[in-house]
Amino acid sequence: MHRSVACYVLLLCIKIADCFIYPLHPHATDENLWRTGDYNPITEVVRQKFLDVERRWSSSLPTLDDTISSPPVDNPFQRGPYAERRDYALNLQPGAPFFQPLDSRPGTISADGLRGGNFCDEGALDSECIIYRPLSFPGNYTISGMGVTPFVRTATTYCDSLDCACNLEFVEFLPSKSDLLWASITVEIEEGSAFVTSKLKSTLIDGHLLQGECQSQVSCKGQLRSNFSDQSSCFPGCGTFYKCLSQIDITDYARDGIIHLNFNSNEHDFVGTRCGGHVLNVRVTIVGEYKSMGSLRIARGGGVFCVLQNCSITFHSFRMLSLDEGSRIFSDRVTFTVNSLRIAGHVAASNLQVCAGAMNLSHTGKVSFVDSNIFSTCQIYIQPNIVESKYSEELPLGCNAHCLPCSCFVVDGHIHFSVILITGISLFIGAEGHISADGLGQFGGQGAGAGRSSQSGGGGGGFGGHGSGGCAIGSGEGGLGYGEAVAPNMLGMCLTLDDCQGDFSMQMGSGGGHGTVEAARGGGAVRVLTSVEVRIMGLLSADGEDSACYLNEVTKGSFVSEPGGGAGSGGSVWISSTRLLGSGVVSANGGSANRSCDTIQVVTSGGGGGGGRIAIDYSAFDLDLSMKAYGGTSLCASGGAGTVFDSIRKVYFFDNGEEYKMSSDFPSSFAYMQDQPTILVALTPWPSWGVTESLSRQVVCCLNSTRVHYPVNGCNPAVVEQVYVQKSALAEFPKSNLTVLVVQQSGSVIATSSSAMLTIDSKIVLRNGLIGCLGCSTSSFDVSRNSCDEICPAWKIVCEGDIVMDGYSKMMGNNITIASQNVYISEGAALYPSSWYSLSSFDMDCFSLTLNGTIHFSSTRLNATNIGIFAAGSISADAIGGKAGTGLGDGPSTRYGGGGGGHGGQGAQACFSNMTGGVSYDQLIPTRLGSAGGYGGLNLTAAELEEATKRSSDGSLNLSSLSSAGWLVRQVRRTKEFISLASSFCLLRGIRSFPGLVPQYVTPLEMLPRFKTACPVGMRGSSMRDWCCSGMNCDCVLVRNDSVPGGRGGGTIQLVAYKQLQLNGSISANGEGCACNRHPTFSTGGGGAGGSISISAEQFLGAGSISSAGGSVLVACPSTISGGGGAGGRIFLKNHDIAVVDPISLSLNVSAFGGRSGGCGAGGAGTILLDVNQTLIVDNGFASFWSAMTPFLPQDPSHARLSDIIVRRRASLEFPRADALGPSLSVWVRDKGFLVAQETSSQLRVKALIVLNDGLVGCLHCWSSTDVMNDIPGCSDKPTVCPVMTISTQNLVLQTTSKIYFLTLNISVSDTFFVDETSEISAADHLTLSRLNINSTHLRCSGLIRSSSLDLTGLSASFSKTCKIVSKALGHPAGSGPSPGPSGAGGREQRQRSATVLL
Question: What is the pLDDT of residue 44?
Fold first, then answer.
């Protein structure tokens, strides 16, 4: 019976000592060792060989033993003490005992880079190569953890019966973390002791036939015999083996570390004993080589250094490389290519490259540049897929292809280089971690956006935003922005940073300009591109460097700073990943200038650096992650905000980091501009995108497509749909269409000469933001221009959706055009000019306007379907119209006060002046600005005023040419209604005032500097662009000697509501008044005239007000003569709803009053024309004393369409010209209104004349006339000058103390003539002969008719008991008749003229 015996040998390579695996050289395999069952000889060989290694280390002697794993040196007498060799790959092999260098060895090895050998022959797979002391190399050196290890495996099996089978299995004969290079097998059978030899039928490996029949042959009597029949002949004996297979390649079978062998014996007869009692004995020997990686640890105090420049240290093929805290690697170039890299020490290099499956930088770890005087680069590629699976357990938990959690690249320490490129699967920056390119960009004075250098202080560098200029006069300007926001740097397009050829100039921040102190550097460039996740809990930054401050001690304890250099701009950061998460910070902030000097007496600061550029690509984003590209600060101005581009949301962010509160206090029109911060912010130029920028991203993406670990969303196109401008950022107008624009938290979008149009598809939202231009109080962003007018071009918004202005948002500009759907302006929000002194315009077309804020311009034109102006809402042109020397009706300038400006009426003359106020002009449907009041205190010609006005407003003010004439720049206060002179002078921009320094006031002889600096501390800008004033509502004006300026006129407003105007707020174009409150002057200026308001709507609703009043004069200080009040303006209301007969009957308050003056007459009333019933209203609101005239101007086509004229409340209207009136006109004179005859206009032909409630027609009575009112002398010593008047009407009614005063009057009434008991028709001057001719169809008299000569004719007359027709005592004055009586005995009282009545 045949029996099958299985022979199973399991070789487990877990412990090196148990396996007796020795790292033999492949050519030193000991073939003399066979299976004896005694392993001691092999153990002794291993021990002896490693004793040789130890002796070589301890005695520093070379060896020629080729069985030692380290190869010999070329020349034993030229080797260094520790046998280094240039570019030598360290051969770490398993099996060596743990070895620690002797303490007696020198601290630093003096190496010969040309010699070879290993400095670390220790370390098995389960141990480390440890460097305890510094190692220095004079040249390039490569340290490798990859070892090539030869191995030998020998095992036997047997078979006890004929035709049996036995098996042999080698299990895990390779270490678990190794790769087989090659393997071969030798199979031997032991020659038997019987008369027949052993015989194999077949040999199989892993089920495959490896060898057929094999029978041993031995030498017997000179012959090779395989069968012995003669028992007495040769007996080979046991212990002799015959090779059936010799070194057959089995590499493919052995790669998995398991080999299954099967041996089958043959059937045969034999005689004799068996070797070992077995029929068949088989011995198998496997020989080969495998490669494996060891680990390297650099312990505290240990290090690797390259002592020469431009040398390289390379670490590769380590399964683990660790730097303990306190260890260092230092070389110009350092390269890591390892499975896992852990750094708790310091790696310093000018060029660092890392390729690893995982990297961990602990909180004590630091990876940084060697020399700050050169650009340094860092490229890190972390990808677990490059690590073979057998080494995956060396990677952190979660560091795998799925990356959950993403722990492959963890930074808890600090990485700091000029240029950083990080690619791979993930990046995690811990709370204490910091990846930085701070202050390592372009050097001071270098870069595309370098600040200008100056001995007075350097400007800040620019990149994403412009740098700000230095603070002192003559200091350097800030550098300009450049580069691409959608692709801030092109590092991703380089397969390695070396491919970029070191040209990173357009991808870094620029340096500041030099002062006497060196300027700062810009920020560097960082690119992160991972396939799964970037999680930032700490900081990733490319900030610009702060500029330094240097102090000189001029006297003991007194320090003065040197003019500082400008700060560097922020650099660039571009992050692309599937997930972008965390609550940390990504920043590319500009550097700050000279902040360390802010506590000393005098500071000359350089400019702040502009913010850098950040771009992000992702699929999932954590909103807690903060992106910062702020401009750096200085002692006077901040650099412009950088850019943040979000490619997924297609959003630009412009953010400058600090929100200045926008004031809600609007005490005056001018104060709108003054609520801006006096600390300036430089501009951020609009980043373009298009073919070039898209191509830039496409180039990066095309290269990325060859790298499967790069995220697809790194290839998002350069599309921007939304823009957010916030926190004091000043961004240029977008040059491309947007979907949404959000301006908030004191952010500003600024129009420039190259970009002055906004095109928005969906929505514009302002939340405490600004669009347009800054006021002269803050503008500094365009240092190449000299005035606010030049800085602020005409700009336009085209919005297909809505515009929403919330909070204290603003739109500013001198010429604004808006087209939109719905516009919402909340309480506190405002639209107004960027320059108060210049004329401004606002033009808007929209579907609907909801206004609870303020619109204030010299000229406003608004067309909408519906307009709603709520209680806090106002459309204003107050005090922003005509300026002195520019208007058609300017008041005269006299020593005794300025005359009021004219428009709808005449301006009032100053109280003690003999010059009338400004003349009336314009038509009833008005289009003109109101005119300014005249200067008081000095006689000025119109030419002088025109010249002064021009120089004040257009920036050409050269005070040296005007100083000889006594012109000065004085400070005034401008409230909502008045302008008043202050005691102080204004301060020129650019003169700094800091703690401990007395402010320097300039004289008029000084030339103006270029406009680029802020006002001194505590001061603010004025309507004169180069001058600063102090205090709320302050302004600067040009005056001559003791002259006092008059008020400006009102502007123009034209509104069209195709359906409804709901007015509960106000619409006004009032003139500016003048006041004398605290500082007495000889006289005041005159008030400005009201402007023009034209409103057309289908329906008027609400209880608001419409006003175009003249400016009043308030005198509250002693010994000051009052100027004249400004005339009222003109208002036209067109109502399309014929059901509304009189809009005034609603709750609307419509007025065009003349301005009052201090103690004398008011300006002439303006005009209000109601188109729906063709009614003209002339109303002066019960002005005290008298009012200047409201002329009835010729050549106005509106006159012919009039149905009614209403003159009331001390308004004085000139007789309408008869040839200009329609046939159905009725005139109503009521409530102390005056209808006054003039030499040029004394004939009244109307349908009806109704005089009511103290109304007066004709000439003023002597007690109410003054020299100014009608150009007539008073009653004192001259006859009253009153023209011959003619009144022709169908109906004439006088009721309730109404009067007609005349000297010669012809009245013709075709229907009814009624005079009630309280009214009268009487001579204006009792000292002058008068004549009255009345021709009336029906006369009803209950009052008084009195004249020197009276002729009354008609069809019928009715005289009540109270009617008096008197001609008594109205004859010739005493001594003037044809037969004058004797003096004292006759005279006027003794003569009478008879009245003639013909019926």
Answer: 57
List the one residue out of 1380, 1287, 1282 whose CA is nearest residue 1326: 1282
- Alpha carbon distance 1222, 1176 (integer Å): 13
Q: Which residues pair with 1014 in a beta bridge?
A: none
Which helix (H) or strand (E) element contains residue 791?
helix 788-791
Residue 1392, strand partner residues: 1368
Using left for φ > 0, alpha for ψ between -120 and 50, and beta otherwise, residue 1171 falls in alpha
d(CA 340, CA 317): 10
Judged by DSSP in three states, 82 sits in: coil
Query: Is 554 in contact with 560 (CB distance < 8 Å)?
Result: yes
The angle at the Cα of 101, spanning 99 to 105, to the nearest 5 degrees, equals: 165
What is the H or E stretch that residue 532 is in? strand 525-536
Judge contact between 1095 and 1059, C-beta under 8 A.
Answer: no
Could you tell me how far CA 374 lies from the centroid of its own chain?
32
Cβ neighbors of 207 (< 8 A, separation 6 or more) are 260, 262
- Contact between 834 and 794 under an 8 Å Cβ cutoff? The reply is no
List the one residue out of 939, 816, 943, 805 whose CA is nearest residue 885. Answer: 943
557 residue type, one letter:
G
- DSSP label at residue 387: S
Q: How many angstroms separate the Cα of 122 from the Cα of each of 22, 53, 67, 74, 86?
A: 13, 9, 15, 22, 20
Beta bridge partners of 706: none
Cis peptide before 405 (omega within 30 of 0): yes
User: Helix, strand, or coil here: 1122?
Assistant: coil
Q: Long-range contacts: 957-964, Cβ < 8 Å, 24+?
A: 957/1008, 957/1024, 957/1026, 957/1038, 958/1007, 959/1004, 959/1005, 959/1006, 959/1007, 960/1004, 960/1005, 960/1007, 962/1004, 962/1038, 963/1004, 963/1005
Q: Is the pLDDT of residue 198 over 70?
A: no
Q: Cα(799)–Cα(547) distance, rounded to whole angstroms?
A: 43
Which has the higher per-residue pLDDT, 499 or 783? 499
- pLDDT tens digit string along 728-781? 888 888 888 888 999 998 888 888 777 789 999 999 999 988 898 765 443 333
Instruction: List, in order, residues 6 or more apart from 1080 with CB less than 8 Å away.
Output: 1117, 1118, 1119, 1120
For residue 758, which of 800, 712, 791, 728 has the smallest C-alpha distance? 800
Cα–Cα distance, 453 to 1099 (Å, whole number): 63
DSSP-assigned beta bridge partners for residue 26: none
CA distances from 1216 to 809, 1193, 1249, 1285, 1377 (A): 48, 8, 12, 12, 36
Instruction: Note the pLDDT tens digit of each residue in 165-183.
Output: 889 988 867 777 778 888 9
Contact 590, 655 (CB under 8 A): no
Beta carbons within 8 Å of 661's beta carbon, 6+ residues apart:
746, 768
Q: Other C-beta atoms within 10 Å of 1347: how many?
A: 25
Question: What mean pLDDT is predicted for residues 361-367?
Answer: 97
* Contact (Cβ atoms closer than 8 angstroms) between residue 863 and residue 847: no
> Residue 156 pairs with which residues in a beta bridge?
283
Strand intervals (E) in 387-490: 409-411, 414-416, 419-429, 434-436
Element counts in the chain: helices (H) and strands (E)? 8, 89
**What gap in Å lies between CA 1044 and CA 973, rounded to an integer?**
12
Terminal C-alpha separation, the chain: 175
Mean per-residue pLDDT, 1196-1219: 86
Report how far Cα 610 is from the mean position of its chain's Cα atoms. 11
Of the candidates 618, 577, 581, the one whose C-alpha atom is nearest the C-alpha of residue 710 is: 577
Which range of 332-346, 904-918, 1007-1021 scores highest in mean pLDDT? It is 332-346
